[in-house]
Specification:
The chain has 168 residues and is mainly beta. It has 2 domains: 38 residues, no CATH class; 112 residues, Immunoglobulin-like (Sandwich), CATH 2.60.40. The protein contains 1 helix and 8 strands. The two termini are 31 Å apart.
Length: 168
């Protein structure tokens, strides 16, 4: 039987009501348990900060260590902003990739006009079904670069790429 207090099935939510004992001897363990629950719930939440430097996401991923499944791996996030210079644009991601590096999410958005101007946006990657694929946008990550490949139609567009990854 699974113990409901184990980390494997804990949820990042805190109880909204609780009864506290009047006896000081009985109150201390209840308050200690509450503090632990708060810390665990906060630590299990996903961080909503997106920035141009490496930041902890709050996501915990399974261990690659086969001797223990208790050690979770913390994922990181970084946002990249650059302008497409042609049909294929590369931008360095500066992530030290090795055999234990895993990308967990690779996504972004392309804006076809300068910030503040009228235009439209496309998710990255994007499949151009209606146009027969002529203006599709491919998003790839190599060991050193972020690569966007598309038609020259998108040259000059602003790209935001978000990489989320585990270093080991």
């Amino acid at each position: 039987m699974v113990n409901p207090t184990t980390e494997a099935i804990q949820s990042p939510y805190v109880s909204t009501s609780r009864t506290f004992p009047q006896d000081p001897e009985m109150l201390q363990p209840v308050l200690t348990k509450r503090d632990i629950e708060f810390a665990q719930a906060i630590n299990l939440r996903t961080n909503g900060i997106y920035d141009k430097f490496q930041i902890v996401t709050g996501e915990q991923w399974f261990s690659i260590d086969t001797t223990t499944s208790l050690r979770k791996r913390q994922s990181l996030r970084q946002v990249y902003e650059f302008t497409l210079t042609g049909a294929s644009t590369s931008f360095p991601h500066n992530i030290a990739i090795n055999s234990t590096t895993n990308f967990t999410h690779i996504y972004g958005v392309l804006q076809n006009a300068p910030v503040g101007s009228a235009g439209f946006y496309r998710p990255l990657p994007w499949v151009d079904v209606g146009g027969g694929g002529a203006n599709a946008i491919e998003l790839d990550v190599t060991p050193t670069d972020i690569v966007i490949t598309t038609s020259a139609f998108w040259t000059g567009s602003l790209a935001y790429v978000i990489l989320e990854y585990i270093l080991g």
